[in-house]
Design brief:
This protein has 396 residues and is mainly alpha-helical. Among the domains are: 102 residues, Tetratricopeptide repeat domain (Serine Threonine Protein Phosphatase 5, Tetratricopeptide repeat); 82 residues, Serine Threonine Protein Phosphatase 5, Tetratricopeptide repeat (Alpha Horseshoe), CATH 1.25.40.10. Helix 1 packs antiparallel against helix 2 and helix 11 runs antiparallel to helix 12.
Length: 396
Amino acid sequence: MEHADIAGALDKLAQAEAGGGVSAAALVPLLNNLAKALAEHGRWEEAQASLERTLSLQMADSGPASLETAAALNSLAINHCLQYRYYEALPLFERALKIRTDCLGTDHPEVARLLNNIGSLHNSLGQYREAEECLGRALEIYRRHGLEESQSALNLLNNLIGLYKDTGRHGTAEETALRVFGLAEKILGPEHPLYATVLNNLAEAYAGNNKTSEARDLVLRGIELKRKQSGDHPELVYYYNNLADIHRRREKFIEAEAAYREALSHGSRVLGPSHPLVGLTHLGLGEMYQLDQETSRAEAEYLAATAILERSLGPDHPDVAEARCRYGGMLLEENRPKQAEALLQKALASLERAFGPRHPKVRRVLSRLAQAALELGRPEEAKIHLRRMNEISGPA
């Protein structure tokens, strides 16, 4: 049975089209509503078809350099990001940014919103300098327009929390998350759909500073609120993974396993068993089993994660490389350096293609490749890996 919101959107669109001769102005809102309903239920490929149709209509109706076309490009790019298709999203965002800058100037809030989206994308790709530059420019525009306490600024600050966390600035991440929490209570209220996201982000910031009890309580509040508001929402997969990670940090492996299993069950039901988020959940579960010395179960989860991520994202995606890196690390612990090296070499090639040769994630793989080379009796090769590793800043 079709979800009520999707069925309603499809019905309205069909009624409009049945009349014939419907203008772009009339069809575009209906297509956008359908795309929104589909995305809410994780049906992003179907949403993409609606958004691509919207873009074609806008380009034909108002021209390729119109603000309406920019809005359609932005929506399509966001949908690509939800499917982890960052390299397809970036040129769409950049086209939209050029249109808005040409039409509105460089200091307009609508330009800031696009800079925020582009900054978030760069952060997802590990391009942290570019991410911080875009997010900083957007924040300055909001400040100049007196929009520091707007929902747009709140969304931007949420992205900054992720950037600070990913670059190891956990104190700044927590400080920003607390600021966002106060702002959300002031301008949104605890019943707003975004409030649960704010709770989850603050929980992640607390967890990064080893405040795991506070983090756990916030995630549980977020889960309860999201279930109350949206039922089986796809975003709950993130929340259960976050809860599982917090339990794992506390070495409460029974509770962590239960949360990962809930994430797997929910993700498989709502998104499908081959969705990237399901693959990433298998990856987290594998790491938990590895920490709990259950290596055979860990290996099964790593294999499941790698297979799902390869199928859904392609063999060269950074998340596939991460799965190979973690699995390779476990194989090293199990004195299986030859198998580990093969996986790590694939991971290295993918990460270098995605991020360049001097990214912190490359450093971690080089460290493990050096260990594999040593264990395989190739000390000179290990030295080369270590020399390269030491030229890159970041944790090994």
